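Ex. 9. Protein: peptidyl-tRNA hydrolase.
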Amino acid sequence: VAGLGNYGLRGTRHSVGMAVLDRLARQLSVAEGWRVDRRCCADVALAAAHGLELVLLKPRRLMNINGLSVASAAEIYNLRPQDIYLVHDDLDKALGKVAIKLGGSARGHNGVRSCISALHSNEMTRLRVGIGRP
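Predicted structure tokens for peptidyl-tRNA hydrolase:
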């Protein structure tokens, strides 16, 4: 599960993917388990839920190149694109509204575009979190 955003701009609506992962880590009782993984240039926490092993990932790169971290983590943890969930902001959704999208285009989102390019696939599931338009 990758929370897309700009690491240096945490706490902004544009980096809501990282905030969702922070909340998920707290709910899974692994919030103290975040560590820097230099191999994929990201903060990583490992968790388990409903019999699944999860890799929680917060890239330490700019949004436009988040895909490099996601692709590196996929290689390290032996994940296929269809195993990956991207959590990201969506300007076209009202603040707080969420939607799940299975594969498809980036719909203008640079972080998703970067992931599609780096993974050579568009098969990742996306959790789109509405941030509304300013």
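Check your answer against this statement. The two ends are 27 Å apart (CA to CA).
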